[in-house]
Design goal:
The chain is α/β, with parallel strands linked by helices. The chain has twelve helices and twelve strands. The strands form two sheets. Strands 1, 4, 5, 6, 7, 8, 9, 10, 11 and 12 form a ten-stranded mixed sheet that branches. Strands 2-3 form a two-stranded parallel ribbon. Helix 6 crosses helix 9 and helix 10 packs across helix 12. The N terminus is likely disordered.
Length: 376
């Protein structure tokens, strides 16, 4: 045998193949070492080696609140192989799940990515889900995205109408004949603003609507070139804080009987009252909240989605989902948070999520297919 090996080696050397052969041997050694480092012996023969399930969450740009929300959700639902067993007080995710947060170009991109199977899940504002599910702008010309399903509403923001102090706007109805920035075409901000304005009978026919983003709109308002603008966010948003602390703007209430009309076309826009002092020297303000919805595809495993939903509301995960600066995060350990998580959803609940909420007594039955109300 030794003579045979020496003969093979001599032949390889004469053909100058020793280098490539050694390279192949080295590569095989690295593969073996990599597998050895990933695989760990099971805790018992019944456990078997750990199996990893990767679960991508489409969010938004890396500097957006949606990306930060995605990071928190990913931390709460993940439990890779080798993680210590859950106890009754600490965090607990889904066994073997590794959630990965993905930045994206925004809501429309997230919807298309989930539909195409590029993301397992995503975070999408409710207004965009409503439009996608019904095939309306900015999805006109595309097939309606009827395969989208909701896991839960996980984050709530407020809708603000910010008026230049010099415009003397104190009621929503005063916006008629005013110059109003509603955001760029196809954005969640614009679609929300147009839906709210329409409920009050305000539109292009009796107001001047422009597509500036809030940052640019704020500059125009300060220089008297714009009367008001819409923005969506939390009361502690830096832009809003800066403007209100300086007394440069008024926050216009969104209230009145017109909200009944709005609720018929957009039940996910929920009236809320911000307490006095939310902004410097201001009384309580009536406005709207709008949810960010955690979605997946209809064909996602019901068992997996039920486990993910359970992890969102596991008491030990509450600490991960209550960070400073993200006050709108909903998942928690109480019944009230669970009710808000299913309130006014614009698309059906996924079967797995419905099973979880049914077991908790939040919904009356676990529908395999839940059809939302028809809306104009």
């Amino acid at each position: 045998m030794r003579d045979v090996l020496e003969e093979i080696w001599r032949g390889l050397s004469e053909r100058r193949l020793v280098g490539p052969v050694l390279a192949v041997i080295g590569l095989l050694a690295l593969v073996v070492l990599g597998v050895a480092s990933w695989w760990r012996a099971p805790d018992s023969f019944e456990d078997g080696p750990g199996i990893v399930t990767f679960f991508q969450i489409g969010t938004g740009s890396v500097d957006s609140p949606y990306f930060a929300v995605g990071e928190r959700l990913a931390g709460a639902i993940s439990r890779p192989p080798g993680t210590p067993p859950c106890d009754s007080t600490g965090p607990c995710g889904v066994k073997g799940l590794v959630a990965v947060v993905k930045s994206s170009a925004g809501a429309a991109a997230n919807i298309r990515a989930v539909e195409a199977g590029q993301f397992e899940s995503a975070l999408v504002p409710a207004i965009m889900l409503d439009l996608a599910y019904r095939g309306k702008q900015p999805f006109k010309g595309e097939n309606p995205y009827t395969g989208l399903r909701a896991v839960a509403s996980v984050y709530r923001e407020n809708v603000f109408v910010v008026a230049s102090r010099g415009a003397h706007i104190s009621r929503f109805e005063d916006l008629r004949k005013m110059r109003i920035a509603v955001g760029p075409k196809g954005s969640p901000l614009r679609e929300t603003a147009l839906r709210v304005l329409a409920a009050f009978g305000i539109g292009p026919g009796n107001a001047v609507l422009s597509d500036e983003l809030p940052e640019r709109a704020a500059d125009l308002a300060l220089f008297g070139q714009l009367d008001a603008f819409f923005m969506i966010g939390e009361p502690r948003a830096p832009l809003l804080r800066s403007l209100t602390d300086r007394g440069a703007v008024d926050i216009v209430p969104i209230d009145g009987p017109q909200l009944e009309v709005l609720r018929k076309t957009a039940p996910f826009l929920v009236p809320v009252t911000l307490p006095a002092g939310t902004f410097r020297l201001t009384p309580a303000i009536e406005t709207l909240s709008t949810p960010l919805v955690f979605i997946c595809d209809v064909d996602t495993s019901p068992a997996l989605v039920e486990e993910v939903t359970s992890a969102l509301f596991y008491p030990g995960n509450h600490m991960l989902l209550s960070p400073p600066g993200l006050d709108g995060l909903l998942p928690g350990e109480g019944e009230e948070e669970m009710k808000m998580a299913v309130e006014g959803l614009p698309i059906p609940l996924h079967r797995g999520a419905a099973a979880f909420f049914y077991k908790k007594g939040i919904i009356s039955e676990p529908p395999s297919t839940q059809v939302p109300l028809e809306r104009p």
